[in-house]
Amino acid sequence: MEQNELYPIFLKVAALEVLIVGGGNVGLEKLTFLLKSSPSAKVTIVSVNFLPELIALAQKHNAKIIEAAYHNSFLEGKHIVIATTDVIEVNIQVYEDCKQRNILVNVADNPPYCDFYMGGIVTKGNIKIAISTNGKSPTLVKRLRQFLEEIIPNNINELAENINSYRKSTGGTFSEKVTALNELTKSLLIK
Q1: Is residue 8 one of the residues assigned to a domain?
Q2: Is residue 92 part of a domain?
Q3: Global pTM?
Q4: How far apart are alpha carbons 8 and 176 in whole angstroms?
Q5: DSSP string spanning 67-119?
Q6: Is 6 among the domain residues?
Q7: Is residue 74 part of a domain?
Q8: Distance CA 68, CA 94 (A)
Q9: Residues 123-180: tens digit of each pLDDT
Q10: What is the largest CA-CA distance in the chain?
């Protein structure tokens, strides 16, 4: 059986420079997804054409819009790049240019040309859960996200805040704190 060997990581994208290449529906989807999770993300979008909805969203979040054809000079200072054009040759060029510069890249809907996938995300306050099918089924990711959004209680963030307060006020060694917190949270397991 194939196993998902992706390593989940939560990036502080407000401290990184993100480039989206393409201003159409897929670019809008990726920008929406990114800004929903990280509203203060630093994003630049480059494209020859832009959907009005993408422009409005970019302006709302102070994202930079550049109306131009892709050129590798747009990669300068970027940490993450997402290629979303409807021209496969452009997307592959973006991928190759990023690989030469050790920049993480995602070519939308083309798993062989991705260093990472943008999975489903469930957020309830400080609780954030990422979901991946290893690029196999975005539809399943969507359904799992909907399921988790329904079953995770809305007050879960309150619990996280209370546990954090307890954690800060608990004395002892690191090991003793871990033991105390494990004891406190073990009742969360549903048997």
Answers
A1: no
A2: yes
A3: 0.87
A4: 28
A5: ES---GGGGTT-SEEEE--S-HHHHHHHHHHHHHTT-EEEETT-GGGBS----
A6: no
A7: yes
A8: 14
A9: 999 999 999 988 788 899 999 999 999 999 989 999 899 889 988 888 889 998 888 8
A10: 60
